[in-house]
Structures are given as C-alpha cells and as structure tokens.
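Milestone 3.1: sequence recovery, worked example.
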C-alpha cells in the first residue's frame, strides 16, 4: 500500500468511526477510553458475537470524545491476546486508525457469530448498551442448537443422488415463486445448480439430503429414501370403523403435499358446490379444512380458480367455500 493509499484508507475509516461515535453507545457500539480496559472490551465483544455484532473503539471516552492513545506493536499484541480468550475463536482483526498529533484509535469490528461464545469460560450477552452474563439455560439452549445444526441429517451430503435425479422443473417453479414473493433474490440464472446454491442445498459441489427430500424423483426416493413415503387409508364414516382401502405414495415433499388423494378431495368439493348451485356454501371443519386450504395455497389455487369462481372465508378451524360462478369445462 502506497502512502497516499494508506492515508485515504485511514481517513475513510476515521470518518466511519466519527459517524458511529456520533450515534453513541448502543447494542452494537461500545467505547473504551484506552486498551487498558481490554478485559471489559473482550467481554463486550463476546456479547456482541452472541448478539448481532457491532463495533468496539478504543480511544473514545464514554461521552463520545475521540481522544486516541499511543498505540505500539505491544499494544496490539495485548489486545489480540485478550481476544484470544474468546471461545470458539472468532475472526477479529484490530485496526489502527491514526489521528493528528501522534495518537491513534483501535477499532475492532465484530461480526455476528453463530455462537454461543464465551470469554474466559463464561458466556456474555449484549442488552442495550450494556454487557451481562448470559443465563445458564439460554447458554445451554444455544449450545444444543449449534451442535444440532452441525450434525442435522438434512445438512449432510446426499448419498447416491445427483442433480440428474432431481425434478428440474419443480426447482425452477419453486425458485420463481420464491422470487415473486421476494424471499429469494433473482440472480438472473435458471440453471439448476445456481438455484440449488441459492437455496443452500448444494455444498462444495455435493447435494444435501434436504435437496433430495424436496426435489428428488420418486423412482430414486423409493430406493434411497424410504422415509419419503406417505401411507393413505380410507374409512367409511367418521368413527373409522369400516375400512375401505389403503395405498402408499412415494415422492418428494412437493409431490406428497399435492398427492392424488388431496387432489381428489378438491374435485369432490367442486363437484358438491356445482351440484348445490351458485351462492351455495359448504362449511368444512378442522383437519379437512386445513388440508384443502393448505393444498390450495401450495399448488393448485390457480388451476382451480380457472375451473370455478370460488370464495373462501373463515379461519384455520372452520373454512367456508362458496361457489360464486359455474365451473368452466376443460377444452
């Protein structure tokens, strides 16, 4: 870095610090007068790692005056040694920002961590502009959550499944719907590999089990993922005393959500509404209501609205479907 480039970078970082300092201490900002307060600063940094990250600035008074201090290689080594007592080790690189007159600031940018983090064996948490010890129950909950995430079955590499085994059309449809709902940024590509990366289902070139469960074709799932099966049974009446028949559906999550039985249920509902005539209503209770409502939302709403003009009112427990127009015949 040339002297001019160094000066420009220093000036830019100083302006950034001035903007941060102007807003005062907060959940994400802490001032320390000198690096002699590095122990308290390390606790604060630990707390920020366990929260939403932030900035710690040495050389600024509590009331926001930028004073600076003498900073040597030994000063930075002391700070680094203190930060080394945070576990697990976080990526923290103290920056020196020079001031006029020979003094300097030390800035530590704190990323948001996956946590939980401890300093000297004790976990800390930011609560507003203060740092407090994290409760034992909260620490244990976060620890279990971190361990669970690292070993969760769905995040492990899929064995025996390749991209060629996936339903490419379903992947594209799902991505486009997510983009339409602004839940996924449109990167301009519809390549299956790019979309899987965007979903977090491809890691180091390997598909994850989650990708197989969501998008794999049924023929591959029968062999490799027997858990991707849904057994369906029909009974006469409400007491389930008289058995009619049963069968098993195998497929990815999307296929199972819009399985044949639910589609038939929708057709029966439309047929019933058509028989009753315009402005008639059918009230569905409990799980039947939820099954139809959820299936409409997931896949077939547009298709069914092309077949009939329908109106839905009610809650999760009770839903009323009212025919407000006659179905149009296909073809």
């Amino acid at each position: 870095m040339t002297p001019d480039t160094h000066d420009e970078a220093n000036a830019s970082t100083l302006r950034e610090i001035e903007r941060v300092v102007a807003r005062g201490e907060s959940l994400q900002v802490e001032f320390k007068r000198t690096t002699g307060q590095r122990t308290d600063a390390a606790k604060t940094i630990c707390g920020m790692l366990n929260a939403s990250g932030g900035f710690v600035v040495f050389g600024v008074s509590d009331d926001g005056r930028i004073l600076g201090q003498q900073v040597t290689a030994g000063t930075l080594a002391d700070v680094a040694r203190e930060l080394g007592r945070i576990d697990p080790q976080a990526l923290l690189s103290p920056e020196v920002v020079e001031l006029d007159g020979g003094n300097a600031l030390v800035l530590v940018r704190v990323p948001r961590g996956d946590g939980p983090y401890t300093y000297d064996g004790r976990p800390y948490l930011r609560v507003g502009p203060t740092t407090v010890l994290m409760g034992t129950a909260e620490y244990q909950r976060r620890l279990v959550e971190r361990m669970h995430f690292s070993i969760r079955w769905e995040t492990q590499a899929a064995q025996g499944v390749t991209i060629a085994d996936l339903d490419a059309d379903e992947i594209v449809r799902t991505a486009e719907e997510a983009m339409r709902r602004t839940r996924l940024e449109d990167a301009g590509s519809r390549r299956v590999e790019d979309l899987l990366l965007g979903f977090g289902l491809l890691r180091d070139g390997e598909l994850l089990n989650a990708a197989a469960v969501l998008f794999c074709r049924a023929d591959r799932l029968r062999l490799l993922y027997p858990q991707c099966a849904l057994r369906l049974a029909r009974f006469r009446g409400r007491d389930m005393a008289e058995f009619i028949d049963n069968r098993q559906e195998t497929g990815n999550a999307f296929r199972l959500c819009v399985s044949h039985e639910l589609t038939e249920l929708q057709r029966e509902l439309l047929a019933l509404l058509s028989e009753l005539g315009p402005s008639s209503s059918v009230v569905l209770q409990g799980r039947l209501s939820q099954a139809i409502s959820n299936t409409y939302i997931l896949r077939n709403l547009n298709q069914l609205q092309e077949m009939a003009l329908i109106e839905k009112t009610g809650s999760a427990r009770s839903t009323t479907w009212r025919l407000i127009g006659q179905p149009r015949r296909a073809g």
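Confidence is low (pLDDT under 50) at residues 278-331. The radius of gyration is 30 Å.
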